[in-house]
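Technical note accompanying the year-one report. For the benefit of new consortium partners, we illustrate the data format agreed upon in the data management plan: each record pairs a sequence with a structure-token string. No post-processing was applied to the example shown here.
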Amino acid sequence: MEDVWAGALWALRVWLYLIVGLIMIPAMFGFSLGISETYMNILVKTLEWATLKIQRANTVERTLNVSASNSLIQRGNGSMEKELGELRRSRPKPPVGGDFTFSDCFYFTLKGIESIVEDEVTQRFTSEELVSWNLLTRTNDFQYISLKLTLVYGLGIFVRYCILAPLRITLALIGLSWLVIGTSAVGFLPNSSVKSWLSEWVHVMCYRICARGLSATIHYHNRENIPKKGGICVANHTSPIDVVILCNDACYAMVGQIHGGLMGVLQRAMVRSCPHVWFERAEMKDRHLVTKRLTDHVNDKTKLPILIFPEGTCVNNTSVMMFKKGSFEIGATIYPVAIKYDPKFGDAFWNSSKYSMVSYLLRMMTSWALVCNVWYLPAMHQQEGEDAVQFANRVKSAIAHQGGLLDLQWDGGLKRAKVKETFKEQQQKEYSSMVVGDDSSSNSD
């Protein structure tokens, strides 16, 4: 029995030495030994070979395209007035003036059916479809195609669950432990430039270890636009891992609600060394208090830029949904960032309605890898005569355009709530303005 324990301890020491020497130390100082690059090259070639085998096995090549041009419903870009006008002109005798006509009912019936058949909101909270199977059961059911492909699929299961998963879980535990220990230790130092430098180094180092634990390959573009102190960094939101992706390249001040449990331990440790902005549950409902705390933070040019995801929820890597206006009301410099994941290597989207955080992280740790592009956009400022909503929409459009994402007006909160009455009232006001001819009604209310 003693020999068994001794052998197990020896194997554990070798495992930890390899992790520290080959992964953690390079991650801490921001360089690579080429292991990740070699793994990614082998992975890309394997997936390309598997795709070719699948295509050859199918008598009819089927490709899935999730772009808007191939959607079930082809929507026009015309206004309600234009579309109703065309519908009325199709009648033998168009009505005089703007009186109600029975044919108007068909317009609203058509829009209702379109919304049911192709709901723009619901589609954004389902996993992104792939052109071809990536040998992950979560993106396609396994079907026997050839013996070679079956053997590769089985080998992939062994590699992902027996090699990559234990390695990634070990790195995640080490990274989070070091984050707690490191930030707590730095917190005992007196406030100085040395403390700020050490705090940023500890944060970035630990996030890099966690990123290596996900086999993350991150391509940063336009780093000259990286967010600076005294500003607000806003980005589209696909996953909680977005924080790791961005903090792998720079340090940010986080904003959020105070939690208990493990998350609470992390928050309390981090705030000792860096001025993050944490709120109690009751404080989050006080808009004036939140705005004041954020304003005080950005007005101090020595503090780190705040990282905010204005969508307020995770969206499935295909679109950018409505930005909440809160972070755009305080007059700070906004640094937009666009994040786009490559779904071929794993589904980064977190469907919080379907998976718990633990379940989601386990899925990510058994994926092939995490590959994404990050674009830093030029700083943006609120223009004269532009309100917070218009400013937020302008920033959102810039992020969507850069990331190749659909720019949608819908509030992501609709996935858990009913349609707001204001949306219904907007349609009613537009139609009333046409029929009654009341110029005082505003189509943009």
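Partners are asked to follow this layout when depositing records. Residues 147-187 form the longest helix (41 residues).
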